[in-house]
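Checklist before submission:
- one chain only
- standard amino acids only
- sequence pasted in full

Submission:
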Amino acid sequence: MATDPVCGMFVDERSARLRLVRDNRTYYFCSEGCLEQFAAPEVSRRRLGRRLMVAWPLAVVVVVLTYVSPSTRDFEVAAVLAGVVQVYSGAPFYRGAWDALRSRSGNMDLLIAVGTTTAYGYSLLALGLPSRFPAAFYFDASSLIVALILSGNYLESLVRDRAGIALQRLGEILPATADRVDGAAIHSVPLEELRPRDLIRVGPGARFPADGEVRAGRTSVDESVLTGESLPVVKGVGTTVLAGSLNGTGMVEVEVTRTRGDSFVGQVGRLLTDAEEARVPLRQTADRIAAVFVPAVLVLALGAGLAWFLWGGASATVSVLIFVSVVIIACPCAFGIATPAAIVVGVGRGAEEGILFRGEDSLERTARADIVLTDKTGTLTSPDPVVERLVPVAGVTSEELLALASGLEAGSDQAYARAIRARAASSSVAPLSVDRLRADPGRGVRGERAGHAVAVLDGETAQQEGVNLAALDAATSAADAAGDTWSVAVEDGKALGLLVFRAPLVPGATEAVRTLHHLGLEVVMVTGDREPAARRVATQLGIDRVEAGVRPEGKVALVERYGSAGRHVAFVGDGINDAGALARADVGLAIGSGTDVAKEAGQVLLLHPDFQSVPRAIELARRTVRQVRWNLGWALGYNAILLPIAMGALVPFLGFSVYTVLPVAGAVAMGLSSTIVVANSLSLRWAKIGRDLGPSAPLRAALPH
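Returned file contents:
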């Protein structure tokens, strides 16, 4: 059985009439509405918006006419207005119901169409034939149900609209052209023309257009968006570079080994596609019940009417009233809005919290999560390092060490240079004036001061150049054990002191992990960073388990491993390296500070760039799904009690005269049931979410102005 990618209903591929081929994959749909929403979401949403613009104003007028001193003339006007809503705004439900009947299945469209048509149709009969039918009118119920459910569909389409562009975002990270070396000449060529064994030149600050090996030059490369490694990686002759990574200050020549589809970025793209195909959405609870409930109600209504007519002595008019009473009392008004009412409120509340859920399925997936796998860099820790401590040698003060280092780094835009200057500024230390500054890509920065050669070098370079670090052994060992990065300030080949860097925790991360534990979730850090750095962060945050040095395909494998063990996995990430895992997990939560492709791969988008949104999203999803289940339980319980009455349980005691009041009583019960469902759903609007984390900023703070 295939799955409708829009609504999650199962579709039989053998008999499915509605299908679409995209990117060499065939998608199957349960209705034309789902097909249109998937194939042309913008067109579908515009049409839906027009139907809403008609439905709500007319529905409000119908309610006013029904309850504010109604007269026969008012009901006649209400009948016309409700008819417009029923025929025009409710047209998608009729098309979906027709598709369900042709495929011999039940769905929410059939449920809504039967309920609203019965309510509207009987109201017309009662208005047109007052002597034959009790004066019970349901024009307000039919029009409001259509308007409310269309509103839920429209809101879902807004967040679903972004779901299909993740692979496009992957391509956008690569430059459009590459500088190919042809002998002594350099030619700018489109990326499509690159072939393995081509030699390309990549300048400072540019992104690598293809995977390859460095053949000349030396530089440092920022691969954090791809691998999760928070620190720039030194690249020299013979080392590998990845398409999409960001070159530092050095100029390098690279021999192409893999292009586009075969590159690292292309492989991540395939991970996305494979994960999307493998992920089977949960069937919507309402649709599962509707598949049985709708035909059962119709059979019961028809059977009760015929039984009383054939064997119970009921007249034809009474038999019609029995049929109408059963369908109206069982009219899935509360049932029809049980899911969308809670979803609309829950999704709206999430938007205020900066949490965007992609449709109802993502809410259910998020609510079921029992383990959280999370990236480290950019998710739990800031991508920008800070100077954790200064360790000067004897005879040198911390201020002198910092003044020299900030003078050397005065003209650099590297992350570590910015960290040094920020530490100097916060410590009110003025940078020293350094002459003849020059960057040594992948090694450090050098210059002269008062006739002395000075430099800030990374640890490996300092050791290679024979700088004596004996006096700093304890400090370097401690930094290595903690997973910190360090550089050495040098004057005339002698070490002046150590600058130790660390990626700080994002604000609120500790509280967020504690809240996840309070919600009963296990937390596992999965990172491409080094083991010591990962362990240190995990200890600070109280994280249960650490998986370090994991590349993107390894993250996907970990998600699959936990899933195979019966766990419902939530994965939190912010980089392209997380995209495959975000897509493969039961639910992917993409942090707002991350790359576009990560955000598009996630089923839940967290607009606020902090980890605090993760427990908020999970708690909100659980509350919303709990409300949906309560609503459905109420709607079904209401039907279980009143259906036998509608079918004639009171006839032996009160006679057929009971059907002069049952349609009216059914209207009252139906309205009360729907009101309770809506009121219960609205309680989500004021529920306390993330009580251990404090209030969240409103959505508008996260959106561009």
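Reviewer check: The CA atoms of residues 528 and 549 lie 4 Å apart.
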